[in-house]
Amino acid sequence: MEIKSLDQNLTVSAQLSLLDLAELARLGVRALVCNRPDGEGADQVNFAEIAREAEKHGIAARYLPVTSGKVSDEDAAAFGKLLDELPGPVHAYCRSGMRSTTLWALVQGKRKQPLTKIISAAKAAGYDMSGVTARIAGDDSGHALAQYDVVIVGGGAAGIATASSLLKRTGDLSIAIIDPADVHYYQPGWTFVGAGIFRPEHTAKTMASLIPRGVEWVKAAVAAFDPERNTVILEGCRMVRYKRLVVAAGIKLDWDAIEGLPETLGRNGVSSNYRFDLAPYTWQLVQNLQQGRALFTQPPMPIKCAGAPQKALYLSSDHWLRQRRLAIDVEFYNAGAVLFGVADYVPALMKYVEKYQAKLNFGHNLVKIDGDSKTAWFETTDADAQVQRVARTFDMIHVCPPQTAPDFIRVSPLADSAGWVDVDQNTLRHKTYDNIWSLGDVMNAPNAKTAAAARMQAPVVANNILADRAASEGRRSSGVAHYNGYGSCPLTVERGKIVLAEFGYGGKLLPSMPTWLINGKKPSRTAWLLKERMLPPIYWKAMLKGKEWLVRPTITDN
């Protein structure tokens, strides 16, 4: 018997044997609910036998049989009543535990528990509730808030760029962008904010000002997906239906994964350029530090902009060197094994590591911070494969948080085993659901998670959505576009120079400029001017407007 916990009061399992009752009693179970009709299986113990054995162990037993595949609202109401009446903890069982879990989920939905929390708890127990998501949310009638040709989840760089690229190609689509945020951020600019180069307000605009004309903005958070019914379920249990779906939900910065970090962010010398409100504090710390130890951290991959943690190191160190603050020890703690994932760029970066006399510590993952004592703890594995915890004091620390897919993505039927949206890495189409595409940080193609990658992906997705529509209508399309994994990471090695890393799948170099103009393997002032002067307007006025300069998709399949 494998017992699965759904909440503090309820566990579930597959069919019980008489011998299992003693174990349930030992675990403190006080009541039992059978959701499997007698006679359903040849090897099934009848409920009467189970009830007699349960009574011997002081466990109350109730029979609430539910036919497989036919869990009704009345069944759920009766199950909820039993949960209220019976002494807890309660254990429910059926053939596999699925019916019992479905009943519980429906009860929780009626009681207005957060949908994501319900689905997540069920998934953690091994039960997929995607088939009853709409019912859990309170709608099984087909009623929806609205229906669109294309629904885009996420109003970040990837989502808005995709909407604009679609509109550039056709004007006869109804498109909605779902996003609860009021402000849209140019996140690549935060490294410069943390170095005193950009003002923070220059990296933010209102979402309303950026939603393309002709696209409806659904200002709400997504709770779940029901791809079998082509439905997105919003918080508050509203429904949005689609013909085709684009998931561009971004990435979750998991600050809580580091013990003590949330309590000390923004004070005690602890900062991060990964948050709009903290990047100015980074610059404040850099300016004020006269001597001592400065730590810079990088968590396990994947993270957005894998070069950002060391960019903070380089720009900070450059400032200290220019100010002749030679009594500052700089240390880089990277959970990974290399300085940068594409080896061609490492020699140029190592010259700056040596210039700034920065100490590199690979295989060190930040797990805890105590801001008051200015101490950070890292886990590392020694030569005997034993995990050791190493403490390091600091005067300043720049933290890059661990990152995961958003919670509502990880528990959805769209996710792979690691929680990312599961797509074909070439077409960016979902591997299971033919009318769903994904791009940006949230999907699982093995490319760098950067704004430059999203800029390249958006036209590919737009083209392929329209190619799919044409095929479904019996019309000839221009063909299917393939994404080559392109991503760009402008590594700001000093104020005024950048190593412009541009690469695709497998680390293949994909320079967008001729080498006489920008040689990506060497620090370049031209690349700095590109980053400082050109990329912000390209982002605001080209990428988000559907202008595909240098990123028009190549059709590889007609």
TrEMBL record:
Residues 148-261 form the FAD/NAD(P)-binding domain. It holds the Pfam family BLH_phosphatase. SUPFAM superfamilies: (Phosphotyrosine protein) phosphatases II, FAD/NAD(P)-binding domain. Transmembrane segments: none annotated. Residues 4-109 form the Beta-lactamase hydrolase-like protein phosphatase-like domain. Keywords: FAD, Flavoprotein, Oxidoreductase, Quinone, Transit peptide. This is TIGR01244 family phosphatase.
